[in-house]
Design a protein that fits this description.
About 0% of the residues lie in helices and about 50% in strands. By secondary structure, the protein is mostly beta strands. The strands form 2 sheets. Strands 2, 4, 5, 6, 9, 10 and 11 form a 7-stranded mixed beta sheet that branches. It has a 4-stranded antiparallel beta sheet with strand order 1-3-8-7, with no helix packed on it.
Length: about 120
């Protein structure tokens, strides 16, 4: 019954913005870390950013610092990924995940995963 449902993916032009949402059901989000990951063809899945629990902090991959931001709405059990100044190399399948940790940029720390949503950036 624990599920993560993503939305907001699609086609966007280089330099544009996109906002992804991930709504969690089946458990309370307050004390879970939330992570956004992405995977491009021929590569391993990589961490984009991680939002800590109420006592944690936020980490960003170097490739998205200054361009992507994230937030969480515990009341709505929803986490957001705001993508700005999008580049073609940001094209990937994006996943959200939740884990019973303070904060982590490692996949093993996350127990629950969304199905992924495709983001395609055109030049």
């Amino acid at each position: 019954q624990i599920q993560l449902v993503e939305s907001g993916g699609g086609l966007v032009q280089s330099g544009g913005s996109l906002r992804l949402s991930c709504t969690v059901s089946g458990f309370t989000l307050d004390y879970h870390a939330l992570g956004w990951f992405r995977q491009v063809p021929g590569t391993e899945r990589e961490a984009v950013l991680a939002i800590g629990s109420v006592y944690g902090r936020t980490f960003f991959a170097d490739s998205v610092k200054g361009r992507f931001t994230a937030s969480r709405d515990n009341a709505k059990n929803t986490v957001y990924l705001q993508m700005n100044s999008i580049r073609p190399e940001d094209t990937a399948v994006y996943y959200c995940a939740a884990g019973n940790v303070v904060v982590s940029m490692q996949e093993w720390a996350y127990d629950y995963w969304g199905q992924g949503t495709q983001v395609t950036v055109s030049s």
